[in-house]
Amino acid sequence: MYEIRIHSRGGQGGVTAARMMASAAVKDGKFATACPFYGAERRGAPIVSFVRIDDTPVRIYSQITRPDMVVVLDPTVMETVNVLDGLKKGGIVFVNTHESLTFPPEFKAYCADITGIALAKNMFVAGSPILNTPVIGAMAKLGIFSHESGKLAIQETFSDVRNVEAAEAAYNEVKL
Amino acid sequence: MKNNLVMGTGNKAVAAAVKMAKPTVVAAYPITPQTEIIESIAEYVEAGEMDARYIPVESEHSAMTACIGAAATGVRVFTATSSHGLLYMHEMLHWAAGARLPIVMGQVNRTIAPGWNTWAEHSDALSQRDTGWLQVYVSTVQEAYDAALMAFRIAEDNRALLPVMINMDGFLLSHIMQPYEMTEPGDFIPPISLPHAIDMDDPHGYGAMSPSNVHFQFRFDMEKAQRAARTVISETEEEFAKRFGRRYAPVEEYLCDDAGVIIVAMGTLGKEAEVAADILRKEGVKAGVMRIRWLRPFPLDMKIQGRELVVIDRDYSFGFGGVVAGEIQARYPEAKMARIIAGLGGQEVTYDDIAEFVRTRKIGTEYWFGIAEEEQ
């Protein structure tokens, strides 16, 4: 079982990102579930969504408290939320940022400027840059699912080719 | 990924199955607390993908009334609701079952106010327990899809002719995305043939006064139909397994054959309990799970003799106890059980918590999860 927690803000597409991640894993022949945590959700508020990937059907519905990976779509969330909470030792933290951040050495940290990719491609929805398709490319680079399945998952969700291009760009930008 | 696997929520899966079942009429109240089930169906109808009459009405009471009127003409009818919407239907739920109309309803189990809380709880559907509806509780997106397909065949079977309520946990299942297989039902659901359908060429009165002796017989006929539904459900689930390869039973058993202690629950808690049983087995505890799917008609053949039960109720009958535990005790007086009240208002309950319920079980007691010992 591989468990991913995604931190974003309401309206940034974190839930759709979770769905595409799960869908990509299923295309790889795995089983997966994606679920949002529903609280007093409103635009701009910090939210979390969850993805579980396994070789057998996922039977767990409770929230993820000990993730293998944390994805931070919006780095400003880190000002108020401890995104590393419960992250397993040796777990991956991926942050969308153009800055170089340092994390405790027990975690594998990766950063890429996903927002920059969206801005360069002029990808916006309701005035905000689209982050959930480039992040799929970054996840593929980190080996969570195949790049091919990631792109297929994007295509079945969004018809605009820029989304797949953004995923390609993010795939190339993440340095292992 | 198999070609016919799609990723979707429980809501979307029920809507997709209903589309396959081709109802003639869908009547619903389209606003909160309505579900995405109806939103999806409205889109199908609007796009011409579904040849149904979609009737938006001003309340859930009217939604069920419109369903009753449509069903009385002998056509296939579907609706969906949730929590307070279901409660608002209450009077007409009795009507639908009493008039023996095979309406199918998608029902998302959510908490009843006050205070306002939209998360999973079974009190909404269990408070409609005595309306005469057949009630099934599902635990995965695939099961929600399959249960919706089977519901039409079960409801419309002339041995049953009772409405079916498909229950799924709010958010936990209605909003989770899982891969599921779409099934073209073909002739699995036969054409509906309601023996007492309104016939313009042979007019009869409906809903006239019924004197005590006639009314008493009506009620006994409903109970006979519930009893017959046990056979109809088993046959339908068997036929479904034969045709489509996915097998269900009124009570899903997991590792029960040699189990000394059995966790009993409904919905997603019953599925997550399987993970708890796996953990307990590794500790040397012979644990199993019985997930009650069909609460009405109530299962009479649960193999609980000589076992200890840990019954989890995501509901409560105030001044009495958990509904499921109470029903089991009434039908199986010899049952030895620890009664757990957990998950109300969407309270987080993990597989670790469920395993702990089993480890710390005290037979003959009721335990409210998360409440201090001295207050229990």
Question: What this model shows, in words?
Answer:
The complex is a heterodimer of chains A (176) and B (376). Chain A is α/β, with parallel strands linked by helices and 176 residues long. Chain A has helices spanning 14-27, 114-120, 134-141, 147-155, 162-173, and strands spanning 2-9, 31-36, 46-54, 69-72, 92-96, 108-112, 124-125, 128-129. Chain A has one domain: 3-Layer(aba) Sandwich (Pyruvate-ferredoxin Oxidoreductase, domain 3), CATH 3.40.920. Chain A is built from 5 helices and 8 strands, in the order E-H-E-E-E-E-E-H-E-E-H-H-H. Chain A is globular. Chain B folds into 2 domains: 5-244, Thiamin diphosphate (ThDP)-binding fold, Pyr/PP domains (Rossmann fold); 252-375, 3-Layer(aba) Sandwich (Rossmann fold), CATH 3.40.50.920. Helix content of chain B is 37%, strand content 19%. Chain B has 11 helices and 15 strands. Chain B starts with a strand and ends in an 8-residue tail after the last strand. At the A-B interface, helix 1 and strand 2 of A face strand 8 and helix 9 of B.
- What does the average pLDDT of chain B come to? 97
Helix content of chain B: 25-40%
Overall spatial form of chain B: globular
Strand runs of chain B, count? 15
Form type of chain A: globular
Order of adjacent strands in the largest pleated sheet of chain A: 2-3-1-4-5-6
CATH topology of chain A, which one?
Answer: Pyruvate-ferredoxin Oxidoreductase, domain 3
What oligomeric state best describes the polypeptide chains here? heterodimer
- Number of DSSP helices of chain B? 11
